[in-house]
Batch of 4 targets.
Target 1
Amino acid sequence: MTSMNGSARDATRSARLFFLELSGGRIHSMNPDGSNLKTIVARCHNPDGITVDAEAGHIYWTNMGNPSRDEGSIERADLDGGNRTIIIPQGITFTPKQIHFEKQGGKLYWSDREGMRVMRANFDGSEVETLVETGRGEEDRRDQARWCVGIAIDSPRGKFYWTQKGGDNEGVGRILRANIVIPAGESPANRSDIDVLFDQLPEPIDLELDPENRVLYWTDRGDPPAGNTVNRVHIDDSSAAPEMLITHLMEGIGIALDVPGNRMFVTDLAGSIYSADLDGSNERNFLYAQGNLAGIAYAEI
């Protein structure tokens, strides 16, 4: 990958960051250098995950709602926040977290934390499906090891990845992988094609995949030294160990990649946004004290 400085990069490509202020219920947009900060959506209900379909001019985001009330939802709006509409209403997904869109198949994928599921739907919210179900009912819901949080899609290989973070600092977090198509005769609750890539992680949260270079990135909000970090691994090498790229986050949550520009963007609950090269070098905190920040997305528009 070719690296170039930020000014040269941004002079040749128009890009925006979109990120969620969980505590304030707002969605913000800005240039990748932190300039031209705007609030584009307000009065969200605990927003957590965001994805951008720049070609169609849409953002999609999840609202966790109150985790005890099964009132999660998913909304869509234009890139400037206009034409806001609910596409997945309350009562369908319990506590939706990270979300990704997959253009080729025309699907939105998301993890449903207290719902203990990985789910997907069409871009308009129709044809909601459950791909993975790790538990059901109140007793299972008390087991945080069943909670699904992050999500990433590997369209070329027909697979998806997700995280199950476990309880606070319990060291039982996992990253898992399965085929997008459920094996014949099986169900989301008993499918046999689930691989556990890593376990005994502090608290893995959001995922991002570089499908061309076959590298998976994730944030971890658990305790140091392995937690409050950004990590990556080459997913086609079964013997590869995770590489720790960034440390000393204040409960890291969101992550977004700009692979052609050799950079990543990371949010944490302390209200900071960091940028760094994809190997973790040249780390810079360029926005801070912004409230509790959750998901982030990068898009060329």
Target 2
Amino acid sequence: MPAVSDELLPLSRIAFVAERHSVDEYLETIYFLAFPIGEYRPTTQGSSTLAVRVAEMLGVSRASAGEMLKRLEAEGLVERGEHKEAILTAEGRKLAERAVRRHRIIERLLTDFMGYTPAEAHEQADLLGDTFTDEMVERIEKQLGEPDRCPHGWPVDTEFEQAENRELQPLADLEPGTSAEIVRLAEHDGSLLHYYYDEGLVPGVTVELREAQPAAGQFTVRVDGSERAIGEKAAAGLFVRAA
């Protein structure tokens, strides 16, 4: 049977993969990049910069990320903003939110019923996301008792997530001497996610920023009565609520 050309099918319906990443994963990544300011607008100026950030988060080449962004724009899922940055359209946002919600529910299925660790669940959910229909996800959610959050603290309800965004900030942005509760963990970097759990930097834990040296890329925090040094990337990926 001859292969069907990608051009014959809309991107929202095909299993197109750029270096093994699906359209949904790209939309999720753009969605995540918009998080720090609590609205659907990446904190970047210029499409090339966004392509770099997407590429870094997905572990793909800049060229592949740029090509996918062009495809998403052609399909009407992203558009260019005032500074030519790529932002989600209404349809893109709808698909991104659906993908995000599905991912978080599958993570809970894997941790609550299948014995996966939270870090493992994220990796497996990436692989399984496209195999679950919307009806299956709804049934899973019901069987789970309609959980509020994924294992890493991200709300299943994306509207609530956006409202809560205004209350949170990265640990790296705190003033030294400030105590805060960890609410969410950045989850796109599997190695970093494993690091958080290994170090006990998980949702619900209170952490105090003792010292910040952004120029050196190092921060000192107090957790459970002891001080430890963490890198800038780790500090930027811990989303906290100041006490």
Target 3
Amino acid sequence: MSKLIALAAAAIVMALGTASVARAEVPDSQLLRTYQPVTHFDPQEAFGPTAVQSFIGDSTLEQLVEGHWVVVDADPGPGALPETGTFRLNQSMCSPSAAVGGLACYRTSSDAWDGGSVVYGRVAHLADATVLQYWFFYYDDAYSYLYPPSDFIWQAHEGDWEVVNVVLSPDNEPVETAYSQHCVGQRRAWSATPRWDGTHPIVYVALGSHANYFAPGTHRFNPACIPPQALFLLHQAGLPLPVDYAFPGGASAGPPQSADVVTTIHKADEHSQAWLRFPGTWGEQQWFHASFFGTVPLGDSPVGPAYHDVWRDPLRVIAGWPVG
């Protein structure tokens, strides 16, 4: 009898082990579809996440030569983007230094190209976890201090990249989510993450900045993400710190049946998506404007996903984000 019990126990252990291996071998494409986020936008939002090809096709490729930006390709394609050097994509028709960050101009250009609703999905298989990353590309970032957007105070740049992370255990059970917000982000346990249909994280996207939040409404910036120059001007003017606006009632995007717009997942693979290796910035210089001060440059536009720390070392970076 004891021999039969031992054989039965061994069979159970083998079956469990087989099930665990099978579960861990779920195709990447299925994992990305299972946990694809549902994004809700503010009613005033002018942009949705789109394909990079529309922005690339609407930009000139420029190289920094002896302190000056020189056009090296007036009509670049994704495969033509260089992998080394100091380059930038500069949207041809608009400038983020214009009124309200050029919002109206960029909206017109974006609508003309219509790259569709797209999210770039990446699966990072690590030693003790799997991280699903959903990278969203927005044509323009035009944050306004006031709601709705006005020319009072704003910050703007071209080519905005944001990411939503879903962390899975070694047996592919969801453990945690982490949403990007300006220079950092916030994280939550899976059990505390709002979800649609059980597995799709719900994300509330802030107007203009496209920072991602777990709930709608207004959200105070992390002070670490506010440039010192902007902090000084706000303090001098006796104004409170800026907030993000993510009110309900706008469009929603995500997997089929979950939203107004179906968002297609494109696999973010550095071999099949050559543009991921582009080392330059997605846009020209950033600008900051205050009606009582003027318009001043404020650094460069963002680099692409593969050059972000959360791509290179996702678990370490996410662990440093506060719980939201």
Target 4
Amino acid sequence: MKKVIALIFCVLLPVAAFAGDSGYKISYDGGSIPGYKAGAGMKLYLDSDHVRIMDGKQQVAELPASAITEISYGQDVHRRVGAAIGIGVFTLGIGALMALTKSKKHFVGLTWDDGGKKGGMAFQADKNDYRGLLAGLEGITGKKAVDSDTMTVKN
């Protein structure tokens, strides 16, 4: 009997530990979702046939995968000059080495046309989730993500 109980705990404990939220943390950067400002924290869920965007337990948007017309991505890279100056004041110049480091922000953009209701949004994804999120979006929509850094505007 003890072995059966031990076996049950050995199976259920790891399942309970890894069962959790499978969404991607995003930060809304702007677009056509009313009532939200840039910087709002949300979660994006990829289901087999649609994309859900949630703010806590409230659903912000639900987009059918077939309605997504474009997926774009890009990065914002800048040097940490302000932080280097702040640290340099207290460390007598050693903080200037921090000015050589860069920080990257990863952005993803979606546009959609859901039966005449057109819209779009841009959001910042976590650096660890960025590639997985793009692969998931490409997989459920069948669209290839476009690198916005290589796009050029023609007048």
